[in-house]
Amino acid sequence: MHTTATAWLKRCTTLALGALLLSAVPGASLGAPEEPAGVALQMHVRIPLRDGTYLNATLFRPVGATKPAPVVFMLTPYPADASHPSANYFTKHGFIYAYVDVRGRGDSPGDFTPLEHEALDGYDVVEWLGSQPWSDGHVGMFGGSYAGGDQWQVAAQHPPHLATIAPVASVRAGVDWPMSNNMPGTYNVQWLTFTTGHTLYTSLFQDSALWQGAFERFYLSGKAFSQLDVEAGNPLPIFHTWLQHPEFDDYWRKLALTPDQVAGVKLPMLVITGARDGDQPGTLSFYRDHLNADGSQPANYFLVVGPWDHPGTREPKADFGGEHHAAASVIDVLRLHLEWYRHVFFNEPTPAFLQKNVAYYVSGPGADCWKYADSLAGATKGTRTLYLNGRGGADSLYRSGDLQDAPAGATGASWVSDPADLSHAKAVPAPPGDALHGDGLVFHSAPFDRDTEITGQVQIKLSLAIDGPDADIGYDLYLITPDGKAHNLSGDAIRARYRQSLERAVAVKPGETNSYDLGKGLWFSVRAPKGSRLRLVLQSVNDVWSEKNWNASKPVAEQTAADAHRETIRLIQTKEHPSTITLPLGDEAAACKASAAW
After folding, report:
1. Phi, psi of 540 (to 5 degrees)
2. Distance (Å, whole) CA 496 – CA 514
3. Do 61 and 39 touch, CB atoms closer than 8 A?
4. How far apart are CA 489 and CA 477, in angstroms?
5. Options 3.50.40.10, 3.40.50.1760, 3.40.50.1820, 3.40.50.450; CATH of 42-176+249-375
6. Residue 585, burial from CB neighbour count under 10 angstroms (0-12, 13-18, 19+)
7. Where are the CATH 2.60.120.260 domain residues in the chain?
8. DSSP letters along 148-177, please?
């Protein structure tokens, strides 16, 4: 598998299963919730919708309740019993819980078209739940991934009974799924197969060998990406609808919501993501659109950024992806939600864990602890810009270039993007940056002379000259600790035709030097120990997980091996055209709390 942008390309591969987790007007006192004697189940509840159809719901209600209670519900395309533990948990603590199948999934009639009906359908669900005799009129939403993104859609409709949302690892259409930076992946066919019709094809979805094999065969076939669904054995109309909108146009804007729609949501909210969460870009795009005009964070908006991957935002683990974190990283997410809902519905204190509006976890030796800030921007206290020095080579891990503090003496380098090279069809274990086939560059920084906290998002701006009409270029950033271990920090990618805007393509003029902002990648916080170094790997995106760009000018989804264009990509390093990476430096003075304060 192609090394560079691995984190970016694999973001979506855990998207679906992770989603199976997971007002009182703020300040109004409703009294403490009752402790129920048990849980009563009610299946096949039909919630009527404005167009005459209905959504199927499963209700969990407290037994022995003497007064109405608030309702917590999840709107989801995953009709399974994986939410049963959450349902039991909240119901046993005095809430009513509803598990609602979106249109066309589970026992809800209709056809499933991802994120196209959830806004209005969700509004109707909220109002129905809030008006039932067993409801006290206050409804909150719960859930992650798809069921995190649809919370924003519903909230933007302003249903009167909705008191709070608590989106976790939220997708945002066109931002991080089903494409990121206008670059879709093969995983879309796997996920759409998982959600085909009304059945949940869990075993099929989890058959990694089957999908790996299917994607490898397709990669080697040289066929157009638009044929992937048929070749994988499941023709999917929505897959082709997505491909008909390769740019961030009105189709995606409607599904993603506008910045004004997001900013208009004034509810109290608890938002959770992770430093390795593939849907962090969606979560943080919602966050940025929701900031006040002066850039400050609303007082009733609480954001938690753990060290976790996508599933870990619902079920944190200390060990995942070859990394180990301290026990403090494993917070009780359900308890945090419970305390949040108690805070909103019953005017109880803000959860003790939420000491400020942003809680973020600092990984790394000597850290592995939580810090707090008033806003996400407040966690970053400075920057350090490094210049890429190709030294005329930088073509491998062992002949790398430099990341240096000053531009003096820095020179460029070049690599070849050859889409006809299919040698990356199979993943071959190798040190990060040592799997180059002449199609990338590697750079190392000097060792840090002291422990250094890096907190925020890196910014990589390259000056490149490409002798062809298009190319896909990605990066991975690693921390190499003194023991020689490589820790992936972030990654992102760009399609050259969208270097100016994601809203319209501009062909590359061969040989012309242009500026490329490779994106800011994932937000993370790590303490780099003294003696550690950074490793930056730049490389052409060319593997089984991404839409194959054959470097032609025609729509990428229609390109085939016959369109392959071998290109040389030159990294320019001059005063007029610098190539840099800017590191966000953390707040060293902020207290580092070794426990979750719970």
Report:
1. -70, 140
2. 9
3. yes
4. 6
5. 3.40.50.1820
6. middle
7. 381-586
8. HHHHHHHHTT--TTEEEB-EES---BTTTB
Q: What sign results for the dihedral spanned by CA atoms 218, 223, 227, 230?
A: negative
DSSP H or E run through 240? helix 237-243
> 299: helix, coil or strand?
coil
Q: What gap in Å lies between CA 406 and CA 384, rounded to an integer?
A: 11
Fold of 381-586: Jelly Rolls (2.60.120)
Q: Which two tokens stand for residue 22?
A: 């997971």
Rounded CA separation 441/526 (Å): 24
Confidence of residue 200 (pLDDT cuts 50, 70, 90): confident
Rounded distance between C-alpha atoms, residue 348 and residue 342, angstroms:
6
The 10s digit of each residue's pLDDT in 274-287 is 999 999 999 999 99
- Termini Cα distance of the chain: 41
Question: How far apart are the C-alpha atoms of 153 and 102, rounded to whole Å?
Answer: 13
pTM of the predicted structure, to 2 decimals: 0.93
- Separation CA 567–CA 415 (nearest Å): 9
Residue in 190, 142, 196, 191 with CA at minimum distance from that of residue 170: 142
Per residue in 65-86, pLDDT (tens digit) is: 889 999 999 999 998 777 888 9
- At 158, list the tokens: 């302003």
Say yes or no to pLDDT of 330 above 80. Answer: yes
Domain with CATH 3.40.50.1820 in the chain: 42-176+249-375
Nearest to 78 by CA among 236, 191, 211: 191
Nearest one of 324, 285, 321 to 303, comparing CA atoms: 285
Tell the burial category of 391 from Cβ atoms under 10 Å away from its Cβ (0-12, 13-18, 19+): middle
CB atoms within 10 A of CB 32: 11
Q: Which letter does DSSP use for residue 420 in this model? A: T
Of 248, 237, 115, 233, nearest to 175 (Cα)? 248
